[in-house]
Amino acid sequence: MQNASPLQASAISADSTEFAAEHDLGLLRDILRLLPTGVTVQDEEGRFLLINDAAASQLGMAAGPAGQFVSKYLDERQKHGRELLRAGRAAVVEMPVAGNGGEQVLLAAHRPVDIAGRKLLLSSSTDISEQKAVEDHLFRSAYFDELTGLPMRRVIEHRVQTLIQRSEQRDAFAVAFLDVDNFKHINDYYGHSVGDALLVEVAKRISLHLRETDMLSRISGDEFLLLLNPIESEMDVADYFEATLQRLKAPFFIDGSEIFASTSIGVSLFPDHGRSYDALLQNADIAMYRVKNDGKGAAALFDAGMEREALARMKVEQSLRHAILEKRFCCAFQAKVDIRTKEVKGVEALVRLRDEEGIIQAPGTFVELAAELGLIDDLTHLVLAEIVRSIDLINETFGSTATISINVAARQADNPEFMRSFADALEATGFPRRFMIEVTEDAFVTKRRFQEVVVPIFRNMGVGISIDDFGIGYSSLSALADITADEIKIDRSFITDIHLRPRSQGILRAIESLAEALGMSVIAEGVESFEELAYLQAATRIRYAQGFYFARPVFLEELNLVVPAASESRVSEMSRPAQQSRNAYSSRPGRYRR
Ligand code: C2E
Ligand code: MG
Ligand code: MG
Description:
Layout: H1 6-12, H2 18-34, E1 38-42, E2 48-51, H3 53-58, E3 62-63, E4 69-70, H4 74-87, E5 91-99, E6 102-115, E7 118-127, H5 129-143, H6 153-167, E8 173-180, H7 183-190, H8 192-207, E9 215-220, E10 223-228, H9 234-249, E11 252-254, E12 257-259, E13 263-270, H10 277-293, E14 299-301, H11 304-325, E15 329-338, E16 344-354, E17 360-361, H12 367-372, H13 376-389, H14 391-398, E18 403-407, H15 410-413, H16 416-428, E19 435-440, H17 442-445, H18 448-461, E20 464-470, H19 477-480, E21 487-490, H20 492-495, H21 502-517, E22 521-524, H22 530-539, E23 544-545, H23 556-560
Parallel strand pairs: 13-14, 16-18, 18-19, 19-20, 20-21, 21-22, 22-23
Antiparallel strand pairs: 1-2, 1-7, 3-4, 5-6, 6-7, 8-10, 8-13, 9-10, 11-12, 15-16, 15-23, 16-17
């Protein structure tokens, strides 16, 4: 073989000379010495007969007195070698060492052999530090949260399940969900890096007061799961969480900002509130839901009453899902009126649900829930579909130039994907310029994405943008300056009895002049009485209004059947205003037709 290695060549050479043999031996020794794999040979006493360069380096050897090598691992290796030789078995072991190249992990293969009547241990060792680092990283990322370093859900789940198996239902422990309130707002307002830093700080504040046997885990964005094990009494648990709440309420100092956050906590106890991991979690979640609904920033221990509530809620959820599937929605339409000319400027579509018993429900009972359940996008598309279906009736009732407003929830407005699909659907109607979308001010102020990505899409299509319920949200007047909208709808709370309330009058004037400067039209919501209207006409330059005084929301089919006006009379009691306006039913929208 032409290209065979010198070692092979010499091994098959039949007439090798003494010189060649010696030469080959020297060559072999050099090869052995320089092999990139560590090679050692030990005798029965574990003494090293041979250590090549790679092995010396791996074992962190330095030359000692009289040319001896010294390494803190030698003794250990000798002992191990003796044992293996005595047992006469091969072994492959991982060995962490601090070698000449720093912290390393070696994979060493040991093999006892008999050569020329001597028992020897041949060992080879490879540096697998890099591979180990990758494995460790994979392990950590499978079980530990990168941001906070806390164990992930599966770790705490395993721990709780082990506790349940071992406890024989005797040893009590607590499981708690902790959720940072309004974290999305904090993230939107301060940015994601501050949001992340806040989560790390929250994790630290909780962890500082845990025992070795407790465990905190981050299970999703702003949600933590805590295991308190063991617990003595309900009282202890309540005290612990009260203290935790206080600690988490103290301001956080991040990136030069002082951030106030609060946390909602739902707790369940083993074995009283569940004998499985799933049951405990579900009940802690139910307790947490109660806290969120009662105004957040508190802790609650699960109880049976909560379970009944949760079941009732689930029923409502189910019926809402059915309603979406069965498209049991319709729209009431309410006119926007020019208060000087009494002409209809536009019309707002207000969604209604027809429940299983055929009773019409107002959006107050289901819109928020639909948003929580991720059903709101479907609902908005259903509203648009109904508008398209009713366009002839809309034109007949309100005039063919009346704008058509659709409400969009703030969380939809912040979702460019949905908003694009909605924009496409508006375009597909063939009359996108007739539409306005009404969004509450939160969408503008805290969600830059809406302002920068979504608004331009709609403006380019000629769809108007309206700020709904203005004045009760998060924005300040100065924030208005950055907003590009076409219309501001002043919330009803400012309009009610406006003629009697000088403070509201002042606010109204301020909003009015700002809107004027920014080229937005102003519309007063919820005008119910002649006095309110008279004030708006006499003391302001506000041009448009909407309210029961002019027209209630109406179902168009019923109007056209000339049922005596009260088409909203079937709206369930909950949605009906406490005080009925004298004129509410007297003015048919048709009266305002051009
Ligand atoms: P909004 O968009 O501010 O609509 C005005 C609400 O005030 C309507 O209640 C309307 O019936 C009521 N209203 C109008 N004039 C008067 C008045 O003079 N006095 C009183 N007391 N109330 C008046 P509605 O129909 O119950 O809707 C409530 C909210 O539900 C709406 O407030 C809107 O935020 C939301 N909504 C309605 N339809 C939809 C929809 O299709 N999608 C979404 N995301 N939200 C919707
Ligand atoms: Mg609206
Ligand atoms: Mg409104």
